[in-house]
Amino acid sequence: MEIFGISVPALAGQLLIGLFNGAFYALLSLGLAVIFGMLRIINFAHGAFYMLGAFSAYMLSAYLEASFWVSLLIVPLILAALAAVLERSMLQRLAGLDPLYGLLLTFGFALILEGGMQYVFGVAGQPYSPPASLSGASNLGFMFMPHYRAFVIVVSLIVCFGTWLLIERTKIGSILRAATENPSLSEVFGLNVPVLITATYAFGAALAGIAGIMAAPVFQVSPYMGSNLIIVVFAVVVIGGMGSIMGAIISGFALGLVEGLTKVIYSEASNVVVFVIMAIVLYFRPAGLFGKDA
Amino acid sequence: MSNTTTHVPGPAQSLPSARVLKLAAFAILAVVLLVAPAVLYPVFLMKILCFALFASALNLLLGYTGLLSFGHATFFGGGAYFTAYCVKILDVGPLTGILIGVGGAAVLGLAIGVIAIRRQGIYFAMTTLALSQLAYFCFLRAPFTNAEDGIQNVPRGTLLGIFDLTDHVTMYFFVLTVFAIGMFTIWRIVTSPFGEVVKAIRENEQRAISLGYNVNRYKLSVFTVSAALAGLAGSTKALVFQIATLTDVSWQMSGEAILMALLGGLGTLTGPAAGATVIVTMQNYLAATSVPVNVVIGVVFVISVLLFRKGIVGVFQKFSKAP
Fold it and tell me: Pick from B118, B138, B298: which is nearest to A283 by CB?
């Protein structure tokens, strides 16, 4: 069985990997979009948060022998707490300034966090094994489906669409959107906007933490695991347009798939295909595929 | 900055003396730069000069035009690669090599600029970052860059067939000349009518458009010139250290240039050079210790953004204007 001269199992396998990578792109670009929506800054530290998520899982397992499932609950809370502290102590002081300063400040955070982890653990990757209940694979007839990869894709989909529901369809979401639309008027109505901002930043960081712990068993847990990934995610965000939550999710998964396809058809280009697509989209549709502002 | 062009001669006598002060400072700086290689290690000084020019090139874009490019390492490292390749493999002279590096960086700048200027603000920053990562992978794969090894043992050569650049002190004066030419170019640009329009775009882009300026053409011009100057810095660096590697085109390098410009003072002529001096000196001292350099750089970044947004030179200007 062949399509375009490529065997179906190979194609399906690469598409699965693409979807798997897309799950991380979607989680991370979603976090960036949520933070951008409220704080109007690009969180350059997002890659470092993702890396800290993986390292927290590694440390919880190495020092406290916490299981994967316990870590999956604790790690996002650790990241949320850290982000809340950073936001309260520093990021908040930049309110009202050019948003570029926010980008530069969070870039500084990323350097400190990554440099610090490198100082403690070195550049070599740390091992982290997936839970036993998710090891193994099923034969679907046309391909093998590793359970852990399927698990990651499902969790990412649940978290992404849960976040979308939370922001677009619930009371909490409408409060957040009101505070974004008009902070001063929202304060008049008794909303505590600074707390909402802190909570949003913490929530975005928690999403990066979830991505980080799910990445830990598959990718090497190393200090710079997030820094190259985050640039691809920036490109994903530019392609999707920052305005829309759904745009971030869809472009995340879609670009993962495109990357997987590229690996099959012309593997040399798989590292750059997202950037090339970004350049093309920018040229023809500067606002991004889902964006409204120019 | 704008008061030099708009001031009306009046009873205030402070301006001539300010000018004298400026000239005196300039003269002292010139003497220091000429004497420095007798006191300090010339290679260290050349490193400072190269990065000072790199940061100043970025500042032309960030400080004067208000565009944050997070991909300037592409032009810096690109210039280094082109020069290193031409000088080592094609056996051209150092001057021709540098000119090719500058030209190549300008072409890269034009190509990236055309796409990047379609978005503003943080989108511009993210776009330049992503495009420079694209360039990074191209340099990684290109057959002439030797991937992880880089182009090593680049010969410095003989300038115009007269000056032997293998001598560190001769090389220093060559680099100092390049630096002076680069800084003069930047000074000419920011004090020209073209520069005034560029600053107007920074202050209020919508108004500049409504005044009839083709803003995108100005942005693209500045972007290309800035890329060419960053290329000049990178080309010169390739000759000084006789090597061009992937480090030069990495996003960390772009970040360092931003930090130097920010620390020294955005939108000031001498600020980025001051910032580069501080950062390069710091890196040199820290390299000998076990202190993690990246962490310190990150801390300086955070402090600069939170408490020190005017930068070193900006603070000085504030003090000298206070009375």
Answer: B118
The gap between the terminal CA atoms of chain A, to the nearest Å, is 46
- Hey, of A43, A44, A46, A231, which one would you mutate to test binding to chain B, going by the most B CBs within 10 A of its CB? A231
CA distance A204 to A46: 8
Integer Cα distance of A70 and A91 in angstroms: 30
Per DSSP, what are the bridge partners of residue A145?
A138
Q: What does the alpha-carbon distance between residue B252 and residue B261 come to, in Å, rounded to a whole number?
A: 14
Count of alpha carbons within 13 angstroms of residue B21, beta-carbon side: 8
In a domain, B229, yes or no: yes
Phi then psi for A6, rounded to 5 degrees? Answer: -120, 135
Q: Is residue B115 part of a domain?
A: yes
pLDDT tens, position by position, A244-259: 788 888 889 999 988 8
Range of the structural domain that residue B140 is part of:
39-250
| pLDDT at B13 exceeding the cut of 60 | no
Q: Is there a contact between A238 and B123 if contact means CB atoms under 8 Å apart? A: yes
Number of domain units in chain B = 1
Handedness of CA A38, A232, B63, B318 (dihedral sign): positive
Contact A286 B258 (CB under 8 A): no
B182 to chain A, minimum CA–CA distance in Å?
26
8 Å CB contact between A143 and A9: yes
Residue-level pLDDT at B292: 84
Is B267 within the bounds of a domain? no
Q: Other C-beta atoms within 10 Å of B120: how many?
A: 15
pTM to 2 decimal places: 0.86
The alpha carbon of residue B222 is apart from the nearest alpha carbon of chain A, in Å, by 19
Q: What is chain A's Cα-based Rg?
A: 19
For chain A, which residues make up each domain, given as ranges? 29-225, 228-294
Cβ–Cβ pairs < 8 A, chains A and B: 116
Q: Which of B301, B126, B303, B117 is nearest to A41 (CA)?
A: B126
What distance in Å separates residue B292's CA from the closest CA in chain A?
Answer: 6
Burial of B216-233, coded b for 16+ CB within 10 Å and e otherwise, reads eebbbbbbbbbbbbbbbb
Give the rounded percent of residues in chain A with a pLDDT score beyond 70: 96
Residue A3 confidence (pLDDT): 61
Strand-pairing partners, residue A74, are none
Across chain A, mean pLDDT equals 84
Q: In whole angstroms, what is the distance from residue B69 CA to residue B121 CA?
A: 10
Residue A162 to residue A244: CA distance in whole angstroms: 15
Distances in Å between the Cα of B294 and the Cα atoms of A100, A112, B120, B271 are 21, 7, 29, 22
Q: Is the ipTM of this complex over 0.85?
A: no
The answer to whether position B130 is within a domain reads yes
